[in-house]
Design a protein that fits this description.
The protein is built from 15 helices and 17 strands. It has 414 residues and is α/β, with parallel strands linked by helices. The strands form two sheets. Strands 1, 2, 3, 4, 5, 14, 15, 16 and 17 form a nine-stranded mixed beta sheet that branches. Strand 11, helix 9 (269-278) and strand 12 form a beta-alpha-beta unit. The longest helix is centred in the middle third of the chain and has 18 residues, at 185-202. The chain is globular, with a radius of gyration of 21 Å.
Length: 414
């Protein structure tokens, strides 16, 4: 069957384990979707659309566009001073209990204008798509009041409109207790469940709902109230869980069919089995592990044994993971957590898309998915995690359009 194409990408090499250096593939694109992927020497029959253009891949390695499935990209100020305090021996929990941590970023974010938040977040987002990111999740959670949470989510939506990246928003109102609610956590959860989340969802600003289930944040019972509200609104959930201790967050999340549970250093086998049964993805965040100088590793071998898909992400945030490099994150997953190189790539593509509930759109080079793919000037996929401080991404294509780097264009249709 002849298929209409708007672009054809030729002379590419799969960036997967075991891919032959001599085997070349071509990708046919119709508008913003992949029409087919085939051996370069055996192309399906196709018809050129009027705007058709052919690109020469020059033997570049090709991967799906990377998917950032856990970021806090929109925030005011930074917390570089806290980094110094941690180096001097203060723990994350000690800093948080002394009024630092998330609450200090809340103050800066409340004071910033939407344009200021947009400008700073846009700079960070540029770093991500320079390393092959075509889709990103952005959480709120540094407002902790209705006005600022809405402001953050509007900025996230604007980033998706004005920059060449797909943005998914997550409401994280249950991130920390704001200072004006000190000692009144139940009242604050009332605000989250009765005012914040319903209003923001009605405004179309929320794609998913998250919470921080931890001794320094919110209890299992309080997080469940947030999940109950999300369920009534038809919104999927995910959870920061088992990062600093194990208080039962993962088992709560799996009861609500969570897309993912994230961090998971203190997850146990019962948690892992519950995740497998619920179809919940494990999102591991090696930059936070590294920056906090943690020693308790997430149970990677247990996830493998029980068949729980593992995703990774920068966790870009101003306090515990000021990270802007997906490739360095992959390296950390391999060196710190024991991932294989192929596992690291799958964790940033197929499994990351699954962690967002967007497998039908992102994460693989299959017909029907968005035509989002990255071209890499490397001889092998090992180089994606080998080099520190340099990006071999020669081009990023999003929805069939080159949005970063350059690719040689050949004959165009008339």
């Amino acid at each position: 069957m002849t298929q209409r194409l708007t672009s054809l990408w030729r002379n590419l090499r799969h960036a997967t384990a075991g891919a032959s250096d001599s085997s070349r593939v071509a990708i046919g694109v119709l508008d913003d979707r992949i029409a087919w992927i085939a051996p370069d020497g055996d192309l399906p029959a196709f018809e050129r659309a009027p705007e058709f253009v052919q690109y020469a891949g020059a033997g570049a390695r090709v991967t799906p566009g990377l998917v950032e499935c856990h970021t806090h990209l929109v925030f005011g100020g930074n917390r570089a001073d806290e980094f110094g305090r941690r180096l001097a021996g203060a723990s994350y929990e000690e800093i948080a209990r002394a009024g630092g941590g998330i609450v200090s970023t809340v103050r800066a974010t409340r004071a910033a204008s939407e344009d200021e938040l947009f400008a700073s977040a846009a700079g960070r987002l540029h770093c991500l798509f320079a390393e092959g990111v075509s889709a990103v999740e952005i959480k709120s959670g540094y407002g902790l009041d209705v006005q600022t949470e809405a402001k953050m989510l509007r900025v996230a939506r604007r980033l998706g409109r004005e920059l060449p990246v797909t943005v998914y928003t997550t409401f994280l109102g249950a991130h920390a207790l704001p200072p004006e609610y000190r000692g009144r956590a139940e009242e604050y959860i009332d605000l989250v469940c009765t005012d914040m989340l319903p209003m923001l969802a009605e405004q179309g600003l929320v794609d998913a709902v998250d919470a921080f289930c931890e001794n320094i944040a919110f209890s299992v019972a309080q997080c469940e109230r947030v999940f109950e509200t999300a369920a009534r609104l038809g919104l999927p959930v995910k959870l920061h869980a088992e990062q600093l201790s194990n208080i039962g967050g993962t088992r709560l999340a799996t009861r609500y069919g969570a897309l993912s549970t994230d961090h998971l250093e203190h997850a146990n086998e019962a948690d892992v089995i519950a995740m497998r049964q619920a179809g919940t993805t494990a999102v591991l965040l090696p930059a936070a592990y590294y920056c906090l100088r943690e020693t308790k590793l997430p149970p990677v071998e247990m996830f493998r044994r029980h068949g729980v898909p593992m995703a990774i992400s920068t966790d870009c945030n101003p306090g515990t993971a000021p990270a802007l490099s997906p490739l360095l994150t992959m390296n950390m997953a391999c060196t710190l957590f024991g991932f294989t190189i192929d596992e690291a790539l799958q964790a940033y593509t197929r499994n990351a898309a699954q962690a967002l509930g967007k497998s039908e759109l992102h994460g693989t080079l299959d017909a029907g998915r968005y035509a989002d793919f990255a071209l890499w000037d490397v001889d092998s996929i090992s180089e994606l995690v080998y080099w520190l401080g340099a990006s071999p991404c020669s081009a990023l294509i999003r929805h069939g359009v080159v949005v970063h780097g350059a690719v040689e264009a050949g004959a165009t249709g008339k």
